[in-house]
Amino acid sequence: MEVGFDFMQELTEQSLRLRDTALSWVSSPAAWSQFALLVVAFLAALLVARRLRGPLTRLLTPPDEQQGPVAKTRRFILIFVPLLLPLLAYAFTGIGESVTRSLFGSGAVIAFGKRVFLFLAARILVREIITDPLMKLLGRYVLIPVAALYALGLLEPVMAKLDETIVPLGNLSFSLLFALRFIVVGGAIFWLGRWSNDQSAQFLKKQEDMRPAMRELTAKAIEIGIFGVAFLLVMNIMGISLTSLAVLGGAIGVGLGFGLQKIASNFISGLILLLEGQATVGDYVELDGGEAGIIVKMGARAAILETYDGRWIVVPNEDFITTRVVNFSDSGSANRYEAPFSVSYDTDINKVPALVEAAVAKHPGVLDKPFPPDCELRGFGDSGVDFAVEFWVEGIDDGRNKFMSDVLFLIWNALKEHEIEIPYPHRVVELSGSIETRSG
Q1: If both were cysteines, with which of 89, 169, 311, 351 could 45 make a disulfide (CB 3.0 to 4.6 Å apart)?
Q2: Which residue, 122, 137, 164, sits at the end of a domain?
Q3: What is residue 371's predicted lDDT score, i.e. its pLDDT?
Q4: Mean pLDDT by 10 residues, the chain (440 residues)
Q5: Is residue 57 part of a domain?
Q6: pLDDT in the model for residue 190
Q7: What is the side-by-side order of every strand in the sheet holding 385-394?
Q8: In CATH, what number is assigned to the domain containing residue 269?
Q9: Alpha-carbon Rg of the chain, whole angstroms?
Q10: CB neighbourhood size of 396 (10 A)
Q11: What was the pLDDT predicted at 217?
Q12: Is the peptide bond before 370 cis (omega within 30 degrees of 0)?
């Protein structure tokens, strides 16, 4: 309660001091001349910014087809063009401040104007330029208030008061200023780490010479390295000794041993999968529990399978290690299918294999290797002679692929073209005894 009272008292004194300063400026000729210089500096900055905005925008806007490093750098600089006006006003005001101090020995008013232009630049930066949600949040609730306090000349006393306000937390204690710095520095560094991780992941996706498993493993290693370095940087900048984290590390170890066993198991299983490459992004897999789909993402805890009906199935990494997994290798390996059909007993069945094999081989998706189409006699059924043609294709017969349907159409057309009958079931019904008819 006493701390709050002291803070309110200091705030009241600062407000009175600002009021007295404003009144002294109103009655001072030197202050009016500085106000005039502020207006001149702002108008000059406005004129120069209007003339430079168009040429700068054209210079920094690359063609849409350019995606190289230089083009990306130009686009990055382009987003800061809205800062041109306040920064030019700040620069011109700085020149005016040096002039007034040399002439009048005072420049308090024009220095205040400089700080106001800096506040406007911070406001434009947060509202119009920053798009990342985390950085926008920090800018809205930290950067803009700090810039406002700096413009009013209240930043130093407020920071001193925050530094004096100690928050006890068990055996630990820290000041509000330390907590604020930790949030700002930690947020900025981890945002930079996430941005660096996204850029490295996009770069690795373009390396088609690397195996998908190796790309995923490299991306995960880079992610762990980046955020590990970010954590150490935050600890170092904030002056926190890493030896003081030994107790926390022991507590985390105990937690992993008891409550986080599954998480640790899934994490290690994910690393094993990436190292061995038995299942990777792009493969079509079917698990022992019946889950089946294409692996679209492999995370630290689980893999995501996308079925052909659009559903996503989250499968823990441990299931790939401890259960039976059928990998159809949709990422490149060939798969064999067979299409069954029947012909009439009146057909010369010796001609059927060559006829069907030639027809199926015309399909653009059917492979010659490891084996060409192979038509085999399977048996003598109730209604006709049963055959099946085996063929190899790349990919899964589902989703965008319709291998089985296309092959059956080819078989039908080939048999019809050579007047080979495809039988349908016949049933013979025998009636015993005499049939009596009754007249109405």
Answers
A1: 89
A2: 164
A3: 85
A4: 51 58 56 73 85 83 76 80 85 75 66 83 86 80 84 78 73 73 76 74 70 66 73 69 60 60 74 72 78 78 80 83 75 76 88 89 86 89 87 76 86 88 75 60
A5: yes
A6: 74
A7: 334-343, 385-394, 374-380
A8: 2.30.30.60
A9: 38
A10: 19
A11: 66
A12: yes
**pLDDT at residue 29, rounded to an integer:** 58
Within a domain: residue 406?
A: yes
* Per-residue confidence (pLDDT) for residue 3, from 0 to 100: 46
Nearest residue to 211 (alpha-carbon basis) of 164, 139, 273: 273
Residues 56 and 126 sit within 8 Å (Cβ to Cβ):
no
Hey, what long-range contacts does 349-356 have (CB within 8 A, 24 or more apart)? 349/377, 349/385, 349/387, 351/418, 352/387, 352/420, 353/377, 353/387, 355/414, 355/415, 355/418, 355/420, 356/387, 356/389, 356/411, 356/414, 356/415
pLDDT for 111: 76
Take residue 86 and report the two structure tokens written for it.
């306040």
Q: Which domain holds residue 269?
A: 262-327
Residue labelled with tokens 């210089």: 37
Tell me how far the alpha carbon of residue 172 is from its chain's centroid.
37
Residues 349, 274 share a domain: no
Any idea what the CATH number is for the domain that residue 355 is in?
A: 3.30.70.100
User: What was the pLDDT predicted at 384?
Assistant: 87
> Helix (H, G, I), strand (E, B), or coil: what is residue 55?
helix
Q: Is 35 left (phi over 0), alpha (psi -120 to 50) or beta?
A: alpha
For residue 182, the model assigns a pLDDT of 77
Q: 22: Cβ–Cβ under 8 A, 6 or more apart, which residues?
A: none
CB 351 within 8 A of CB 385: no
Q: Are 22 and 153 contained in the same domain?
A: yes
Whether residue 359 sits in one domain with residue 291: no
Whether 48 and 121 map to the same domain: the answer is: yes
Reading the block at residue 319, the tokens are 């299931």
CA atoms of 268 and 251, how far apart (whole Å): 20
DSSP of 402-418 = -HHHHHHHHHHHHHHHT
**Residue 366, helix vs strand vs coil:** strand
- Phi/psi region, residue 375 (left: phi>0; alpha: psi -120 to 50; beta: rest), is beta
221: amino acid identity, one letter: A
